[in-house]
Amino acid sequence: SNPLLEAFGNAKTVRNDNS
């Protein structure tokens, strides 16, 4: 699990959840 990928995935998930 890369930190960059995890950060990007987390941001995308949060945005998707917020939507």
TrEMBL record:
Organism: Nymphaea colorata
Gene3D superfamilies: Kinesin motor domain
GO cellular component, one term: myosin complex
Protein family: Belongs to the TRAFAC class myosin-kinesin ATPase superfamily. Myosin family.
Keyword vocabulary terms for this entry: Actin-binding, Motor protein, Myosin
InterPro entries for this protein: Kinesin_motor_dom_sf, Myosin_head_motor_dom-like, P-loop_NTPase
Name this polypeptide is given: Myosin motor domain-containing protein
Single GO MF annotation: ATP binding
Pfam family name, one: Myosin_head
Domain Myosin motor: 1-19
